């Protein structure tokens, strides 16, 4: 075999925009991610004890009170930080940002100190507490492009790096640079509302490049200084009914709804 | 067991001391054997639990995301803290030339070495794949992969290995003249052991001079190493971005806490030794009272640091840190927090402050509560910080230790006791040559027998 790809002048930098206006909280992204990346199903007992593994998850938060209660569904995956706090703390260098900006986990190298998991402010990292088994019929659905993880190691969202690599190989065969439209992570592909947009941040005319610095985009926990490569399009609400929080006493007569 | 072989010679004070203090090396009682078997059983159970955990996965512990660290890291910090008993106290007393130290130093130095041996195991026990622990060591390998020198866990590796080396040397150096003394009185395998360990000690003036110089030097070195080690252990937390861990006071806070728990451990062990080996003449109420005064200072210092930690958080009122603050003061972890305050301050302070209460029983009671309180303190640094997350949907308060974690913790306590018991049967627990007025008392005895 020849050397893998030779880097062209253009190195992509992968990122994602998650549109909270479009997200309905249907959880298709979670399911697609699980199928694509061979994520273990840990079972109901573990789920009750915070023992699930979900590279992509929908975090549901409630705002307001009474009639004005509102739900916000926020898909949260690894935020793929430029300054990832998870990386320097690993004593064996099992996690690093590759030259395309994806924060990757080296399963072979991980010894399981779990320091990275503690240092991730988004809790985007998951530990294999056991060797998880797949039910006989589930086993044939395993994705051959992705390894199954063993007990004692960390895992996390990789922006479906197997798909990125496949697209880059294809581009190399066709002797052209890789196009961001060639690649869709499983979550973005499966989103019926098209809330997830994947693209190349180094392409100023691309899907992400044109809007990346728009004022409506926010990052999670900007104060931590992680500079994520995942941004959220803020939810824009109609002005109709004020939120209880913002007006204070306007909601005194409304019935209470417990969140 | 080798038969006692004490040569008849004119009775001097130091000879009488030598006989009492070397007695544990020559006779072993029934209780000793029973205790050893019991402790070995507990250790064996702990080792089984560790193997079970390694083969089944860390899920057999109560740890889950986001509380990735729990009992094992608490134990790690706790044992490294206990290790400061020793060397640091002994070194400070030696450098300040406190003459009451003679009876205490060796017991303290031995605690250090054993606590480090045990504490150093926990980073391996808590690994997801413990069989690959050597990847943390910078060893030459065909793939030219090095560990990550930017990781605080890597700093730990170097700090602890430096400390265990330094403290072992520091324990060994003052042992040499006593080993020579034991060599001259032992037969069989013991004589061989002591002969090789005493490194041809003849008690010449040159040897004494060199030994004293080396001890003084190591005392100075070991203080610096001890302070840096627990600072580095605190950096496991302080270097992280976790709210309530990311604090600049953690270095001195951990060192103060370490000395605090270390002195408490020393007092407990001294009381046990005094009782079991009838060392009433050597470990007097004065020793306990003096150590009690040191402990009182550390109680106040600990109180100062805890107040510092809490009041800066409260005044700053950052939401991320306040969630941890309230979970300790009045939330999920409040019962443990207030138990810690009672154990570390409210009980020991009056006992140690009042001269009437600063007896052997008094200081031992204070020490036991302090040991419990300091363990809780470490737990309350590790777990609530991890449980309270910046993003509220990530917080989780479900962590409870499972039986493997409790068993392994108990096994390490037993290992400490067993290591100490073994030590007491091989080496004199009180420095005989120092107690006997220094070099001149011991020198003639070791002269011509070899």
Descriptive report:
The complex is a heterodimer of chains A (259) and B (450). Chain A has helices at 28-36, 44-48, 115-119, 136-139, 161-173, 186-190, 244-247, and strands at residues 14-19, 57-63, 70-76, 95-97, 103-105, 125-127, 154-156, 196-200, 217-218, 230-233. Chain A is 17% helix and 17% strand. Chain A has one domain (14-253): Alpha-Beta Plaits, CATH 3.30.70.20. In chain A, strands 8-1-10-9 form a 4-stranded mixed beta sheet. A two-stranded antiparallel ribbon of chain A has the order 2-3. A two-stranded antiparallel ribbon of chain A has the order 4-5. In chain A, a hairpin with a 6-residue loop joins strand 2 and strand 3. Chain A starts with 13 loop residues before the first strand and ends in a 12-residue tail after the last helix. Chain B is mainly α. Helices cover 69% and strands 0% of the residues of chain B. Chain B has helices at 13-26, 30-56, 71-95, 105-119, 122-125, 152-172, 176-185, 188-197, 205-238, 250-276, 285-316, 319-329, 334-346, 348-353, 360-387, 403-426, 432-435, 439-442. The longest helix of chain B is centred in the middle third of the chain and has 34 residues, at 205-238. The two termini of chain B are 22 Å apart. Residues 1-11 and 438-450 of chain B have low confidence and may be disordered. Chains A and B meet through strand 2, helix 3 and strand 6 of A and helix 6 of B.
């Amino acid at each position: 075999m020849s050397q893998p790809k030779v880097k062209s002048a253009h190195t992509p930098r992968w990122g994602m925009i998650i549109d909270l206006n479009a997200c309905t909280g249907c959880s298709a992204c979670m399911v697609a991610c699980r199928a694509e990346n061979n994520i273990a199903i840990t079972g109901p007992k573990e789920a009750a004890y915070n023992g699930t593994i979900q590279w992509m998850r929908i975090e549901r938060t409630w705002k307001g009170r009474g009639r004005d209660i509102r739900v916000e569904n926020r898909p949260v995956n690894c935020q793929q930080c430029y300054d990832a706090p998870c990386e320097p703390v690993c004593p064996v260098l099992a996690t690093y940002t590759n030259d395309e900006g994806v924060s990757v986990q080296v399963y072979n190298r991980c010894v399981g100190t779990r320091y990275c998991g503690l240092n991730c402010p988004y809790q985007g990292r998951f530990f294999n507490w056991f060797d998880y088994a797949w039910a006989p019929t589930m086993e044939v659905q395993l994705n051959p492009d992705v390894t199954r993880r063993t007990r004692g190691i960390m895992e996390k969202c990789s922006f479906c790096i197997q798909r990125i690599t496949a697209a880059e190989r294809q581009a190399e065969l066709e002797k052209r640079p890789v196009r961001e439209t060639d690649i869709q992570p499983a979550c973005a592909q499966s989103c019926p509302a098209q809330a997830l947009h994947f693209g190349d941040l180094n392409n100023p005319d691309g899907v992400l490049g044109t809007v990346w610095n728009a004022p409506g985009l926010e990052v999670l926990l900007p104060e931590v200084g992680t500079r994520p490569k995942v941004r959220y399009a803020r939810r824009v609400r109609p002005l109709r009914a004020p939120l209880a929080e913002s007006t204070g006493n306007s909601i005194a007569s409304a019935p209470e709804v417990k969140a | 067991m080798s038969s006692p072989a004490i040569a008849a010679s004119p009775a001097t004070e130091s000879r009488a001391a030598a006989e009492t203090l070397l007695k544990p090396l020559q006779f072993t009682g029934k209780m000793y054997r029973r205790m050893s078997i019991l402790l070995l059983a507990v250790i064996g159970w702990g080792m089984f639990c560790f193997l079970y955990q390694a083969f089944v996965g860390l899920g057999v512990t109560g740890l889950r995301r986001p509380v990735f660290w729990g009992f094992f890291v608490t134990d790690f910090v706790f044992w490294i803290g206990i290790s400061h008993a020793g060397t640091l106290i002994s070194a400070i007393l030696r450098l300040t030339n406190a003459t009451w130290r003679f009876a205490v130093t060796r017991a303290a130095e031995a605690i250090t070495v054993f606590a480090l041996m045990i504490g150093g195991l926990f980073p391996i026990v808590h690994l997801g794949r413990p069989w690959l622990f050597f990847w943390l060591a910078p060893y030459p390998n065909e793939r030219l992969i090095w560990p990550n020198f930017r990781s605080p866990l890597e700093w730990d590796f170097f700090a602890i290995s430096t400390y265990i080396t330094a403290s072992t040397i520091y324990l060994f150096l003052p042992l040499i003249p006593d080993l020579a003394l034991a060599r001259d009185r032992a037969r069989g395998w013991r004589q061989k052991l002591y002969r090789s360990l005493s490194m041809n000690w003849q008690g010449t003036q040159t040897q004494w001079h060199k030994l004293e110089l080396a001890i003084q030097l190591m005392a100075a070195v070991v203080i610096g190493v001890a302070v840096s080690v627990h600072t580095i252990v605190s950096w496991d937390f302080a270097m992280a971005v976790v709210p309530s861990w990311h604090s600049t006071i953690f270095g001195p806070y951990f060192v103060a806490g370490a000395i605090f728990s270390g002195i408490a451990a020393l007092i407990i062990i001294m009381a046990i030794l005094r009782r079991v080996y009838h060392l009433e003449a050597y470990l007097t109420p004065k020793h306990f009272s003096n150590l009690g005064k040191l402990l009182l200072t550390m109680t106040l210092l600990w109180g100062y640091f805890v107040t510092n930690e809490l009041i800066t958080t409260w005044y700053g009122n950052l939401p991320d840190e306040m969630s941890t603050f309230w979970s300790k003061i009045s939330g999920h972890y409040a019962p443990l927090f207030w138990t810690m305050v009672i154990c570390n301050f409210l009980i020991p302070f009056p006992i140690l402050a009042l001269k009437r209460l600063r007896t052997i029983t008094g200081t031992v009671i204070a020490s036991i509560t302090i040991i419990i309180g300091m363990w809780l303190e470490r737990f309350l640094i590790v777990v609530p910080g991890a449980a309270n997350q910046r993003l509220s949907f990530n917080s989780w308060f479900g962590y409870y230790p499972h039986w493997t974690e409790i068993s392994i913790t108990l096994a390490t306590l037993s290992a400490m006791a067993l290591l100490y018991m073994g030590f007491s049967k091989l080496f004199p627990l009180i420095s005989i040559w120092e107690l006997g007025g220094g070099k001149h008392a011991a020198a003639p005895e070791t002269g011509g027998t070899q």
